[in-house]
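ok so i was messing around last nite and threw this chain in just to see what happens. nothing serious, just curious
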Amino acid sequence: MIHVRNLSKKFGAKKALDEVSFAIAAGQYVALLGANGAGKTTLTRILATLARPSAGHIKIAGFDAKKEPVHIRQRVGVMTHASFLYDDLTAEENLHFYGRMYGVDDVKARITDLLNKVGLYTRRHDLVRIFSRGMQQRLSLARAILHQPPLLLLDEPFAGLDVNAADMLKQLLDTLIAGDCTVLLTVHDIDYALQNSSRTLILKEGKLIVDQATKDLRHHEVRRALVAS
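result:
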């Protein structure tokens, strides 16, 4: 599903990513860990074709990120710190906009189903500008999975969510994974990562220092790597 080779990204003299290489098979749930500034968000944005690398090669679902970014965007759902929602549209109107953009079949039924799943159906006619951060996060997830992409890139999806909303999101992710969706998730919650992911990647100062099956990792090993980073 994802093949990354010798990926680097520079911001001036600073290397945000330094010769990163890995591959993720379809259906895997991969946790991406690292301290603040380790390169997690930069990597997520590059994989989503929202930013260009300085060097290296990326293939997603068989498509070259440099030559075929449009094909990749059609197959990827992205949730980052930016919601990509329009404040002056309602929740329902936002999803209709993206549904038309992606050519979603039976878009009205799909939107109704997703708004129910993220607990926002009763707020479907409200403008996004009055939503709390947590509500926007939930709507952003609905936007990301609206076109049923085979790959999800989620950058801190639980940020700003209360316990109930976070649990709702985790249950929805479980459903997606059971349906063979591939997920790359950046998260600060080590316990959640170790309990739910099949594989763990850890970045330190832009370098990939851990790429291992999660079942083979111990909590203290992960914490030591994160503290060291």
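not much to say yet. The chain has two domains: 2-75+149-227, 86-148.
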